[in-house]
Amino acid sequence: MAVKKLAILGSTGSIGVSTLEVISGHRDKFQVVSLAAARSVEALAAQAALHQPGLLAVKDAAAADQLKALLPTGFKGKVLSGPQGYLEAAAGSGADLVVSAMVGAAGLLPTFTAAKAGIDIALANKEALVAGGSLVIEAARANGAAIIPVDSEHSAIYQSLMGQDRDGIKRLWLTASGGPFRDFSAAELARVTPQMALDHPNWSMGPKITVDSATLMNKGLEVIEAHWLFGQSFERIKVVIHPQSVVHSAVEYVDGSLIAQMGQPDMKAPIAFALSYPQRLALDLPALDLAQVASLTFFEPDLERFPSLALAFAAGRAGGSAPAVLNAANEIAVGRFLEGRLSYPGISACVEAVLEQNTSGSPASVAEVLEADRWARSKARAWVEDQGGSP
Ligand code: MG
What's the mean pLDDT in 211-224? Predict the structure, then answer.
């Protein structure tokens, strides 16, 4: 295949680092044309020295100055900062494929901009679809940009849909590891600490998504993501707990067949698939030996002990700004929990309280989505303060 030019947004995060690892085994197939990060300038400088992209983007001018001081002499790429820098990295760097892996709502505008420019997107930033799903999907469709999911569940569904007639879909089955507290009682959940939440059993991920995995909010966000990616109603999306994380998700068809995708729980596999689709890249992962796996278990999620999942379904069904509000309130609540200023059950209580206050309608632009996002953040901060978690 021709050399594919990649823009990697969020290159110093967990997905970005894994993406560069995948590429390093296949340097003949990929060229990095831009890298964007927030403020991890040392890691970004090392990546830039190795991959020599034409463009680097960071969060602000101070980070840009620090980065310039760390770049090797003779580095020829441009260094940009601020939101405009991220948009340049996405749509102004000549990329064939944008790896959208920024954390949180910051990834929405760059992802939307890539879609509008008709550039294919390997999507790891699920918040872009949760908050701005209709806008991003419509922009991609109108401009011929393919969105290939990087999230392991959605990659599994994408793969399980290949060659199939969409009319034959009955349901999507999203699997969830259930997180480290799947067997905890309500009383035990009330005493969960940040450190306990960060000891995730199967997948190695960043702190925010690790907490979201424990509360099942991550699965809730993925339900909304699946709704937009695959055009299925919320009634047709089913979540099942599967502690081994071997079946990465499945599609049920009208004839009763379930087609699933299985593999080792390693993000390099769905990343490689999204980078190389429709071809497959050879990866150096341990083989999945089914005889060694021996048994796989599945059970229903308990929505009473894990209210975040129920909140996400409700926000998804409500539509409009509700998913953006859910996501933003959750980001604040998780941040406060990680700082030790909010209890574990307080995360879903905060999200629920902010959703109840939301009266805004359907956002008609990315600016309106971001406005709903800002509103929800300030309400969530105020709610935590009211609970005594201030300042
Ligand atoms: Mg996932």
Answer: 94
